[in-house]
Design a protein that fits this description.
By secondary structure, the protein is an alpha/beta fold. It is built from 11 helices and 18 strands. The structure holds flavin-adenine dinucleotide.
Length: 386
């Protein structure tokens, strides 16, 4: 007999298990996850704000609290930002995924591990989902299957604007400061994005993302960065790689279909962070999908409210962030060094120390409103926009 559910969630990462837990209760919800457990392989630097950590509703292990950042420009100029309070938490991302999955199970969600989704067919009365362990039927399908979402591709012409490619390693290396991370921009270590060094105890989480086709592989750049820090392969304790969709997907809903997380392209383009958008989008999905299931009204038109509402919540940061990213990728190393010379002043450090890391693009306008800074930025911005 074919198993039948109210909602089939494809992907057992944070987007899938948070959405599934919100929908469970008196509904039959299944999560289809290709791996044999939650939390591995891990593809994340694990940096979130306290607000995001509170939104998960579970408590992941915290590896460190970060109070400041050194942003290193291509020619070595160091822009130091310090804050009185904690700006970010370094969490154990695998532990987070495991705890979110446990919570979903506690709420009655069935998680089918070791099961690969291969496609689905929507008809008037439901969805037939094909998986490696057989077919299931569901009233609604939720694509939470990550950056290369197959569910998202079932909605035509639905690719994200671009991907950046990331790699990271936890390395036996004690950083100079216990609670200050280092971010590097420029073509040497992270062309088209940035690299990070995040301390935790006697270890440092080192990683980077880069644009596609920027020359070299993420692994080449990681080796170069590690060599510059005086460390190497022998010091690596664990390593991970992944890609991040940027610029959003054109559609995040369809007939009996909703998308969330990386599958929906809900990622902050300036930082590559996907956990905050998931925490904001999931309650909206839970409410709208819940009402649609209750009313048996699962048409694309009805579900389109989801996209409207999550965009009202986080769409501005995602679109403004992507405009900033487009400008950033048009800047040469020389331009970036020019920016360092423009912003290397106490009033800019003070603005940046108050940055809301969940809405990082909001820092641009107070910086540009400063007449001495704004006027010097103008030619660079004009050039970057062309
Ligand atoms: C290098 C790197 C560093 C990052 N650092 C941060 C950070 O510091 N902070 C932050 O907020 N974000 C960070 N991110 C982004 C963050 O990791 C993602 O946004 C987040 O994992 C998205 O969650 P998700 O549940 O949407 O997708 P995923 O976590 O990718 O989960 C998708 C799940 O779907 C499963 N799946 C896929 N296809 C199928 C299939 N066909 N059948 C069955 N299962 C399937 C996968 O196995 C996976 O378990 C980083 C990303 C990378 C690559």
């Amino acid at each position: 007999m074919i198993a039948t559910y109210d909602a089939a969630v494809i992907g057992g990462g944070p987007a899938g298990t948070i959405a599934a837990a919100l929908l469970a209760g008196d509904r039959d919800v299944v999560v289809i996850e290709e791996h044999s457990s939650s939390g591995t392989p891990m593809q994340c630097a694990g940096l979130v704000t306290q607000d995001v950590a509170d939104m998960f509703g579970v408590r992941p292990d915290i590896l460190n609290s970060i109070r400041g950042a050194d942003v290193v420009f291509p020619s070595g100029g160091k822009f130091e930002v310090r804050s009185e309070g904690v700006k970010a938490l370094l969490i154990d991302r695998s532990d987070l995924d495991r705890k979110l999955a446990e919570r979903a199970t506690d709420k009655g969600v069935e998680i089918r591990y070791g099961t690969k989704y291969s496609g689905h067919r929507v008809s008037g009365d439901g969805v037939s989902v094909s998986t490696s362990t057989g077919e299931i039927r569901s009233r609604l399908i939720i694509g939470a299957d990550g950056h290369s979402s197959k569910v998202a591709s079932s909605l035509r012409d639905n690719r994200p604007k671009e991907y950046v490619y990331g790699i990271g390693a936890d390395v036996k290396l004690r950083s100079e400061h216990d609670d200050v991370m280092t971010l590097r921009i420029g073509s040497e270590f992270a062309p088209g994005f940035f690299s990070w060094e995040i301390p935790f105890g006697d270890m440092t989480r080192i990683g980077l993302c880069m644009s596609a086709g920027a020359g070299g592989t993420p692994n080449d750049h990681l080796k170069k960065l590690m060599a510059a820090l005086g460390t190497g392969a022998e010091d690596i304790v664990s390593k991970y790689a992944g890609k991040i969709p940027l610029g959003g997907r054109p559609r995040t809903y369809g007939e009996r279909t909703l998308l969330i997380g990386d599958a929906a392209g809900q990622v902050k383009p300036v930082s590559g962070g996907g956990l905050y958008p998931i925490c904001k989008a999931a309650p909206i999905l839970g409410r709208i999908a819940g009402e649609a299931l209750r009313d048996d009204s699962l048409t694309a038109k009805h579900l389109s409210r989801y996209e409207k509402e999550w965009k009202k919540e986080i769409g501005k940061e995602l679109s403004r962030g992507y405009r900033i990213r487009r400008m950033f990728t048009n800047l040469s190393d020389k331009d970036l060094d020019k920016i360092f010379r423009i912003i290397n002043r106490d009033d800019m450090r003070s603005i940046l120390s108050g940055i809301d890391l969940d809405n990082p693009s909001s820092v641009a306008s107070p910086m540009l409103r400063n007449p001495q800074v704004g006027i010097r930025f103008l030619p660079l911005m004009m050039r970057a926009m062309i």
